[in-house]
Amino acid sequence: MIQRQRFTPLNIGLLLLLFYLVAIPLALLLVASFKPSGLPLDPGWGLVHFRDVYGDPGFYGLVGNTLVFALGCTVGALTVGGVLAWLVERTDLPYKGAARVAIALPMVLPPFLLAMGWALLASPRNGSLNELLKNLFGLDTGPLNIYSLGGMVFVETLALVPSVYLILSSAFRNMDPALEEAAMTSGARWPQMIRRIFLPMLAPALLAAGAYLLIVGFLVFDVPGTLGMPVGLFVVSSRIVYLATDQSGGTAAYGQIAAIGVTFLILLLGLAWGYRKLTAQASRFVTITGKGFRPRELRLGAITPVAIALVLLYFLLAVIAPLGLLLWTSLTPYLAPMSWDMLPKLTLDNHIALFSNRRLGAASWTSIWVAALSATIVTAISLLVAWSVLRSKGRGRMLIDTLSFMPLAIPGTMIGMALIYVYLTLSFIPVYGTAWILVIAYVTVYLSFTSRAANATLIQLHPELEEAARTSGGTPAYTIRRIVLPLMMPALAGAWIWVVAHVMRELSTALLLQGDDNTTVAVQLFSYWSGGQPNKAAAVGVWLVLAMTVVTVAWQWLSARRPQAPAQ
Amino acid sequence: MVKIENLWLTYPGAAAPSVKDISLEIKAGEFLTLLGPSGCGKTSTLRSVAGLETPTAGSISIGDTVVFSDKQACNVPTHARDIAMVFQSYAIWPHMTVGQNVSFPLDVARTPRAESRKRVAEVLAMVGLADLIDRSATQLSGGQQQRVAIARALVRRTSVMLLDEPLSNLDAKLREQMRLELRDLLKRVGMTAIYVTHDQEEALMLSDRIALMHAGKLIEVGTPRELYLAPTTEFGATFLGAAEIIAVTRCDGDMAETEVGTLQLARTVPNLASVAIRPEAIVVEPAREPAAVGSNRIAGHLTSVVFSGRQQQLVVELASGRKMNAQVDAMRNFTPGEAVQVVLPPERLMPLYKDPTP
Could you say which of A347, A369, A402 is where a domain stops? Predict the structure, then answer.
């Protein structure tokens, strides 16, 4: 006899909430794609938008661009990040502490600022790097053009390397050298050991990282929006923003957007499903033996300087050069490449102007409270999701798990679009055009990250810690308050700060959902940039990086403070 | 004190039940051990008593209170049951000090601060940790964590204590010491204890009674002496210690026809499946004159002699080809190949009945 599982009030509540946050927007997006008017509640059905989209030869160019972009930055980031992670974790590279910081630091630089920095460096007209190369080699035109597919792939690769590094370095670190030693003592030589033991063990992590990068490559807006959109070079995410905001006819082409969105969503959900299978597999491979071990380190010998140069080159390209240019531009009165002649003209006017700019003050305040509120809500939901999925025995917990994971594969632009459909349809909920719709969007967008963080932490807490509280007379609610919450606090605080940092730099969703009084700092910065005020944009960018650095350092500090499990 | 009746437990999604029709009654102040190999349902039974698992059918009462009954649709939540529990992992909360860990059950019950402090000090003194009250829980050794876990279970002053393999994470020496300490402590406070273990030696040393489980079913219940010296099933005979099982082909009164010849039993036994004998009960003598009929003597020769100090392990090959292990005194000098005769004393032959089919 198989016992039926029961629905608990918590599970029902979470299911309703997640349906509202995730399933309903996607459903309305789907419905809208079949409506002639492009709005979910209007009458009639039809395939007109799909016919328009698929019938347009430009669509296949768009698909091609998106594929090249996503695959390009996946391969690029996997190669660069993999080499850097291997150098730091498995060789005797000197100054490892500094190398780790240099590789992880680009995380504080929002990708759209990285793209702006590179636009200032390698714009064909007056990029500083182009000027330098022109002078050095006596060229007439700058050889580099960052406003191209290649340029987009290059900048996105730089932006993705830290994520790859983090995934792969922990995979390298968790490999018990005893497994490799066992291969060697079984008579395997180095190449055999690498091929038969090392790579197969690493494969799940590599594949998972690849699938994750592919998803990100398909859905990011920052870099394509900054470098491709101004010259009419589109990928799917930037096309959606363009169609939704820049239509000359007045009303956005909602039907077309929905049709494009549905097409790509199917692809992305497939990828996300694959990613999930792979990470589940990867965790089976993780060899936590509890005893500390140092991985086997390869001696670099004569190529040590090359390895150091590689790390420095990455740091130069991903941080120093773009950030330097942003700083320079924030100090110049008008757009000018770096030169000695400009030095006397440098001024703090742009920065001083920021602090008396009312619009910017309002935007900062919006960014801060939206970030704090959405981070709080999404962290609280993920604590309940994790507890429900891992601890409750109620029905529907697999569905809760899936629904909370799905947003990983839904681009911010699509959540934004879907929410426009939802709140144009449910117009009795007056959030359209306000900052509240941003809060709802961010709770949805970051749900998969925080709930996975909460899951990963709760899974490490032995269930007997809670059972001991219950057999001591504690009710379930009391047990969560006194035992589960305090033990998970460092991890939850880490997730909270991560969300704050990401909301503060988030661009695409905020751009789509922009209304009269919900402009965020990122949107303001982007509008200065695209509106031809790069010096103003650069000044805002410098302060944003400063704020992000503070937040990120706090995050690092908190996530290093994991609850210490008692020695067994 | 605890009464379990016709308990069934099937985990959600599992095809086969983990606990099958268990009925047990534990008297007040008794130390009862649920013993069995891993996966036999002993922990599931214990967790059902704690309310950490919801049984599929049956009833459980603690004291005069019915805490679970499928017929009365009653299921008292864990925190409202008159129990305390010690876990295999100790489950010491790492974000609290020793004192905070132990006072937790009193905080839950909103015990006045002065009394709480007194009771915490009292139980910590009982487990010998009075000095460590302000120590962080993460700075304790395994043995100390174990004591904190026991103190936390004692401080609530419940009628029943449930212990789930509490000694299995300790090293061998500490485990032996803690065994006797734990038993003394529980007897001193007079708590009823249900103890789960897979270690038969631990069960024999600690328990007033042992309930032997296998594949979700209760196989035998009895005092350690009864279960070790007179098991009634083949599983019981082999799980509690080494045993030589001798198949019985025909039984006539107190005489049994077996695979090694006719054996005299101590009494008449109906429904006999086989007889068993512990290796230490087998007497090995030098071969002399042919064995007298009825004296349970069988001729054979030694195939292996292992001297281990306290005793000698012998393997005897009987005339029928059957090999038997015997443990004998260390003084007598045996050599491999030597012709011997084994004596199976009738009072040490344990009659076994057919195992209840699962």
Answer: A347
